[in-house]
Here is the input.
Amino acid sequence: MNRRLLWAALSLVVLAVLLSGLEVQRRWDTPLQLPEQGHVLTVAKGDSLRSVATRLHREGVLAYPEILVAYARLRGLDASIRRGEYLLAQGILPQALLDQLVAGQVVQYHVTLPEGITVAQALTLLGSDPVLAQQLDGPEDPACCKWWHPTAQWKDCSCPKPIALSAAPVIWTFSPGPTGPCSPP
Here is the structure.
């Protein structure tokens, strides 16, 4: 009799674990609730995955933030998200959201600069834009140094002397994310 009771209890535990696993999988496979045009998500410097997930939950976008955070923690990705501005497409799943945040697949802006301006003037122009200002503070920004001297330490570096841009017009791609403030085409 005790053996039957033990098997029955063990069977119930196994069944409960299986059903719980299926429910977690169902929730994980639930797309984010986004409008047709998508949703712009800004991850600022210092934001954690938990704070981003909580914000998305408060906005009604992510139904189960705790599953996203737990999954990322199990995979060692919870501290790997990158700052930037993201466009979340309608129908995106939590796994794809995490992949996008870890890969730093940010919105990119194309900027056309007038002929004859200096690099310092271009950086000042980019730094004055309210969307880009969080990432670029003009020609003295340390990111400027990293663009011109990728291996230099900031203390050993200064931005280059003004250089006239000769192509007309020069098109740069700006990415307010993990790759730096701007890069040539």
Remarks:
- The chain is about 40% helix and 15% strand.
